[in-house]
Amino acid sequence: MKRRNLIAGMAGLFAAGCSKVADSKAGSALLSAAEDWHRKAHRALANRQALAPEFTRADLSPTFRGNGSKTVDTPFYREQLASGFPDWRLEVTGLVATPLTFSLDNIRRLPQRTQITRHDCVEGWSAIGEWTGPQLSLLLDAAGVLPEANFIVFRCADSLYDRSYYESIDMVDAYHPQTIVAHMLNGEPLPEKNGAPLRMRVERQLGYKHPKYLTAIEAVATLEGIEGGKGGFWEDQYGYQWYAGI
Amino acid sequence: MKHHSLLTRLWHWLNALCVIVLFMSGLNISNAHRYLYWGNYGFDLADAWLAVPRFPGWMTIPGYYDLAGARGWHMLMAWPFALGLLAMWIAMLLSRHFWRDLRTTRAEWKPAAIWRNIVQHMKLDFSHAGAKYNFLQKLAYGLVLGVFLPLMIFTGMAISPGLEPAAPWLVEIFGGRQSARSIHFILAWGTCAFFLVHIALVLLSGPVGQLRDMITGGRREA
């Protein structure tokens, strides 16, 4: 028992030392630099347009787990969910030549991409689903993104712990062919728990980068000044990595 | 001639630090979803081949549940761990350290010889009879340097969705992402087992001298 206590004590001291480093200015700079090296290494090793693996219908997981927000707690959402989202609007705004507003019908009428991909949650689990929707690049080109835009911010209807969910990606992922605005999962309209009526698919990153209950797409020059400034709900509130390709 | 070269000593301590931080932060990450699966997908207890216990705070970095913080440490230390091992392998092959000291010979694989070596270990007799390492040592070091540690790196890379478009075959050879994640977990405990046996044997074979030699280099036995 004594030896066990000694090991636990040493491990505890070691962990406390690590926390001291992580809380220091230099330590946290080092930790975010390491995140950046991974992003740069991934981008250097893979072609910008390189696709995440696509599967067949035989590979689909029997169900697709819903995680994080599983609904939007407003009367408007309940009413829209019941009636097939006739009044749901998706705005494309920010640094664009022509701000646009899409209804669900408009979205469905655009050229569609269907892809069977694996969804990897930061927690460690994976599910495979078939997603259908227009490529984000189509919407961005229609609105005419201005050259000074560096990021695309996604606004959502849901809140977690009383804060609005949002996310952001850079232009490489925004113009990636598998980055789509999905309105269907496995051939059916998107279920409530998976983000009905619209959610993003950003296939080369972890699940928290695929925002659900999408209401607006905004082109911005910098992430500073947007909510907590770190580019996403989990990034702002709990220090999650902005680049979630690892 | 030093018993341990400067590079061996530097790598040994850097690697020890990396492995400890990676293991402890990895246990924190494991606490985020405590089920392991085979194949490509898995999210339901019903599909799991193993339900992993929750690891207590004293075993994890940070010392409380913090997935983002643990991931930060894991991703930072992955760099010196992977690059250090790569450098060590290049150096071991170039200097012939691997060929000279770590390679096992056919004679050593004879059952009688292996048995003799095991009995010798049981009697806590760690003499090497001319060679730098005995058979069981070579086997353990070979397994850790050549199998466990490289596979930790490759399974870790296979779990990264951002790397997969560059090397989808890496995920396929492990049998899917959830399989790679399971193998990553199993090997982490294999490495932990080596670590514990390694420490126990150092303690049994003159810890002061062993520790001194791994710091100063020591002197090669005549």
Q: Would you write up a description of this structure?
A:
The complex is a heterodimer of chains A (246) and B (222). Chain A is α+β, with helices and mostly antiparallel strands and 246 residues long. Helices cover 31% and strands 25% of the residues of chain A. Chain A contains seven helices and eleven strands. In chain A, the strands form three sheets. A five-stranded mixed beta sheet of chain A has the order 2-1-11-5-6. A four-stranded antiparallel beta sheet of chain A has the order 3-4-8-9, with no helix packed on it. In chain A, helix 1 (2-23) crosses helix 2. With 222 residues, chain B is mostly helical. Helices cover 63% and strands 2% of the residues of chain B. In chain B, strands 1-2 form a two-stranded antiparallel sheet. In chain B, helix 2 (67-94) packs across helix 5. The longest helix of chain B is centred in the middle third of the chain and has 28 residues, at 67-94. Chains A and B meet through helix 1, helix 2 and strand 4 of A and helix 1, helix 2 and helix 7 of B.
Describe the structure concisely:
Chain A contains seven helices and eleven strands. Chain A has 246 residues and is of the alpha+beta class. The model of chain A has no long low-confidence stretch (mean pLDDT 95).
